[in-house]
Design a protein that fits this description.
single chain; alpha/beta; six-stranded parallel beta sheet; three-stranded antiparallel beta sheet; 16 helices; 11% strand; globular
Length: 385
């Protein structure tokens, strides 16, 4: 995610000369005397840049099984993806397996948002661990009725700043709409009893809010609330949620009132409790970072709590473009995770690819193969009620 609000210096921008061809026919006399003000010109320029919405892919609209099967007869990343898809289908077929969807990066903004929601809707995942940006700045943002836009033209970023447009590579977000998310998080916090909440508990309140006030049915946050699929964000305040929660705390302190707080330890405890109760688990990981390490560490945490019989994660798939040579968690292989006692080395697959280009194939294959139709619903979110 880029810098927010007025945290960078912005150069004064030259207001472009209006293009007469964009005026309606018959307006030439008006055009001769009309001079656009800077605000009107900026509004026009902003509208031009935010004119093409990102359309999220629908995995139910095409059957990727023939492609994935053909890729299995190829080499390199194609065969890796085919094997990863096979492992995910093994998770779906295993009646004892709890599947955790782990998301880092910006694939939700880039067109995979409805894909992830479809996995929730069709009982293809039982738990979600993600970055705050994925859940708040992207999914909840669209749940409130806002959109992401294709950056078909990328002027210099100071120009984008002056227009209050945030950029994620080749995707745009309207900063003014993102501030609506900040304020909504503040509003939700203001309604809650002043006590500690795990990120799961707070995100559940966000899902409840979308049920009552949301503008999009296919929201992961909303569907997770409706299907009792818990969502954990171990770095929750590193997102738009942070702005709203800081305001809630500061305003409460000024007013001499108690306030709600996030309990990061409760996050770890609750996710570990799910691991202990679930037994067999599988990980479908997009990206890496904090969410990846957080879910993997539940095995170690369970052991520390005295559950020496806890299973390592039986199945694991990770899709990433991170370079293994930097020693970071995002790039560390699943084989490496086995040395820490976290993952079974027998049923794992790394796929080194940009996730937005391969997840639609994996998810479509699994959807049309239909193994999810016979899965029992876990409803892990309900154990905390």
């Amino acid at each position: 995610m880029g810098l927010r609000r007025s945290r960078v210096h912005v150069r004064t921008q030259t207001i472009p000369t209006p293009n007469p061809s964009r005026k309606r026919e018959g307006d030439m006399e008006h055009l001769m005397t009309d001079t656009l003000t800077p605000s009107r010109t900026n509004d026009q320029r902003k509208a031009e840049l935010l004119s093409t919405q990102v359309e999220h892919i629908d995995i139910t609209s095409f059957d990727a099984r023939p492609i994935v099967e053909a890729m299995g007869k190829m080499s390199f990343t194609s065969r890796d993806l085919s094997r990863a898809t096979g492992i995910y289908n093994q998770m779906l077929a295993d009646p004892d397996c709890t599947i955790c969807l782990v998301i880092a990066g910006s694939t939700s903004a880039g067109g995979c948002m409805d894909l992830y929601a479809e996995l929730i809707r069709n009982n293809m995942v039982d738990c979600v661990v993600a970055t705050g940006a994925t859940i708040v700045d992207m999914d909840f943002f669209e749940g409130l009725g806002h959109k992401h836009y294709q950056a078909l033209e990328v002027p210099d970023d100071d120009t984008l700043r002056s227009l209050l447009i945030d950029r994620i590579y080749d995707t745009y977000i309207d900063e003014e709409e993102l501030q609506h998310v900040d304020h909504t998080i503040f509003e939700i916090a203001e309604t809650l009893e002043p006590r500690p909440y795990s990120s799961r508990a707070f995100i559940r309140e966000m899902g409840k809010y979308l049920v009552e006030h949301g503008k999009k049915d296919n929201s992961l946050v909303k569907l997770a609330y409706e299907h009792d699929v818990p969502i954990f964000c171990p770095a929750f305040v590193d997102s738009s949620a942070g702005f709203g929660l800081v305001k809630h705390q500061v305003d409460s302190v000024k007013a001499g009132k108690p306030y709600m707080v996030l309990d990061a330890i409760a996050d770890f405890r609750e996710l570990t409790e799910i691991k202990i109760k679930a037994g067999t688990t599988g990980l479908l990981m997009i990206g890496g970072g904090v969410p990846k390490n957080f879910i993997q560490d539940t095995v170690v945490c369970a052991e520390i709590l005295g559950h020496d019989d806890v299973e390592v994660h039986k199945y694991a798939v990770q899709i990433t473009v991170a370079d293994v040579r930097d020693g970071a968690c995002s790039s560390s292989t699943l084989q490496e995770a086995a040395s820490w006692g976290k993952v079974n080395t027998g049923i794992e697959q790394m796929v080194f690819a940009e996730a937005g280009s391969v997840m639609p194939l994996l998810a479509s294959d699994a959807y049309h193969r239909g193994l999810w139709k016979d899965r029992a619903k876990r409803r892990w979110g309900a154990i905390f009620d």
